[in-house]
Write a structure and sequence with these properties.
297 residues, alpha/beta, Rossmann fold, six-stranded mixed β-sheet, five-stranded mixed β-sheet, 10 helices, 31% helix, 30% strand, binds adenosine-5'-diphosphate, binds magnesium ion
């Protein structure tokens, strides 16, 4: 599958939620869409799944214009929205069967439902009512419904919010399964999620793409802008004023900071950036986009 997003903008009255987004996505791709709240992640996903229309710009899927030939995408799409409602009184199995019917799956429906339950590790809970599930289990039901039609394009909006670390790991494993034949777009503000499963990262802020490309590329651009410094207690202000701090550890002498900034101080020990540092640096350079051209993923 090939998705071309060209000059997509979206205004909600006077709010510019998206401004000139350009991305070219090809199977296989596991894309982490990251950015703070209000960056435009959900808006971009809603446009991609045809839930809302862009103010301007064009999206094509395998050469077909999205808004004209929507059924082409719909048949190939699995979507888990950010605010996903579930039917509390139904069991996991009943709910998935209902959604499968809704999606028009007739042949082998039982088998398909069973497979999605297995893939999301919900076998033990298949007879349980949805209202009795934990947050993470409910999210997995959400994933299961999105996987029912074995989608080529799988879009999930902030699925790991509120999950404990163990659930998050389970989640990532589900994502990676079969991703070599899919385009997966996962929005999150947890950089760790991206680091462990995504081979592409798109950083969005205030409706603009600040970066799109492989995580390693983003890290490479951050080299020379991350370091550690030890500061005596009482002198923390100097660091806090000029740099973004990505971690701080108390030491016998004071505090050791991990800092990100355009120009590091002389007394700083330079280190290899993590993806989180790279993300912070990207935000720091906001407006001075690291990657403006039409990007191929
Ligand atoms: N239906 C809407 N009406 C008006 N403004 C909206 C609407 N949906 C989103 N916005 C605004 O658009 C911007 C992007 O929102 P959103 O796409 O939800 O960001 P994210 O998912 O990254 O948190 C925000 O400023 C938000 O307040
Ligand atoms: Mg959102």
């Amino acid at each position: 599958m090939e998705i071309k997003i060209e000059n997509i903008s979206k205004n909600y009255k006077d709010v510019k939620a998206l401004e000139n987004i350009n991305l070219n996505i090809k199977t296989p791709a596991m894309i982490g869409l990251v950015g703070p709240n209000g960056a435009g992640k959900t808006t971009l996903m809603k446009i991609l799944v045809g839930q809302i229309l862009p103010t301007s710009g064009k999206i094509t899927v395998d050469g077909k214009v999205l808004n004209k030939d929507f059924s082409y995408l719909k048949e190939r799409l699995g979507y888990l929205p950010q605010d996903f409602g579930l039917y509390d009184e139904l069991s996991v199995e009943q709910f998935l069967d209902y959604i499968a019917c809704f999606k028009g799956i007739e042949k082998k429906r039982k088998e398909i439902v069973r497979k999605s339950i297995e893939e999301t590790n919900l076998l033990e809970k298949r007879k349980a009512k949805i209202k009795t599930l934990s947050g993470g289990q409910k999210q997995r039901v959400g994933i299961a419904q999105a996987l029912l039609n074995n989608p080529e394009l799988f879009i999930v909006d902030e699925p790991t919010v509120g999950l404990d670390p163990e659930e998050r790991i389970k989640f990532r494993n589900i994502f990676s399964k079969g991703s070599s034949k899919k385009v997966v777009i996962l929005s999150t503000h947890i950089i760790e999620d991206v680091q462990s499963v995504c081979n592409y990262i798109v950083v969005l802020n205030k409706g603009k793409t600040l970066f799109s490309g492989p995580p390693n590329e983003l890290i490479k651009r951050t080299m020379g802008h991350v370091g550690t410094v030890e500061v005596k207690s009482g002198e923390e202000d100097i660091i806090e004023k000029d740099f973004k701090i990505t971690s701080s550890v108390v030491t016998p002498k004071g505090v050791r900071y991990r800092i990100v900034g355009e120009k590091l101080p002389k007394f700083c020990e330079e280190i290899i950036p993590s993806l989180e540092d790279a993300y912070v640096y990207c935000m720091l350079k906001e407006g001075d986009s690291l990657n403006e051209e039409f990007q191929t993923i």
